Amino acid sequence: PTGTVPRQRPPRSDMSLGLTLLPLLLPLLLALLAAPAQAADGAAAEDVKIEVLHLPEVCSPKSKKGDLLNAHYDGFLASDGSKFYCSRTQHEGHPKWFVLGVGQVIKGLDIAMMNMCPGEKRKVIIPPSLAYGQQGYAQGKIPPNATLIFEIELYAVNKGPRSVEAFNQIDKDSDKKLSELEISQYLKEEFARDGKKRDPSVHDEILADIFKKNDHDGDGFISAKEYNVYQHDEL
C-alpha cells in the first residue's frame, strides 16, 4: 500500500476533488473537504501492547486526539515476522503526515500513538480487532485475523487541522460559526498563497463541497460541532 496505512474501509471517492485540485494547500482546508470518520473511543488501550524503545530526555509535547503527526513506521505480520509495509520506501522516503484519532490510519495505530512525543520510538502489537479484522487487507498482503507489529518513530506533533486555533483562524467575526463568506475568503487567501492560476469555478466547486460535507443542518453555517472541534479544545 502507499501513503499512510489505510483504515479498514477504503477512502471515499469524494475526497478526490480537494486532493487533486489543492495538493499544496494547508491541512486545514483538506480537513474541511474530508470530514473525518471518528475512531471509537471505547476501544481499550490495553488491547494494544506498547513497548517504548527510545524516550527523549525532553518529552514534550505529547500527542493527543486531533493532533497532526509526522512519523515513519514499519509494519510486520506477527505470525512470521514478514514486513508488509515500510513508510521509508514510499514517496521518496518522506515521513507520513496524518491526524491522530480520526480514522486516517487503523484504529490500533490511533491508540498506539497517543501520548507520544517527538523523537520517541515505539514497538506496538495490534490485535486483529483493532487492525483489519476477519476480512484482512488483500491489497496490503495482510491475511484475515492477522496480529500486526509496528515499529514507529515520531518526528513532530503539531496542532491538528480541526483544532480550536484552526477554527478561529477562519472565524473572523468570532461568532463561533463559519459562514460561506468567511470560508470563501479563506479559500481566496490560500489560492493567493499557493500562487497557481485556476479557473474561478474551482473556488465555487470547493466551497460547495465544503458545505455539503460539513453543514449537516443546512443552515448555511458550519458550527463548531459540525466542524468537529475535538473534546480537549473549548470554544
How many β-strand runs? Answer: 8
Mean pLDDT: 78
Q: Helix count, per DSSP?
A: 7
Taking the alpha carbons of the first and last residues, their distance comes to 38 Å
Helical content class:
25-40%
What is the radius of gyration computed over CA atoms, rounded to a whole number of angstroms?
Answer: 19 Å
Which segments are poorly predicted (pLDDT under 50) over 5 or more consecutive residues? 8-26, 34-46, 230-235
Give the CATH topology of the largest domain: Chitinase A, domain 3
How many domains, in number, for the residues?
A: 2
Tertiary shape: elongated
What's the main sheet like?
Answer: 6 strands, antiparallel
Query: In the CATH hierarchy, what is the architecture of the largest domain at level 2?
Result: Roll
The fraction of residues assigned to DSSP E strands is 15-25%
What is the helix/strand order? Answer: HHEEEEHEEHEHHEH
What is the CATH C-level name of the largest domain?
Alpha Beta
| Class from helix and strand fractions | alpha+beta
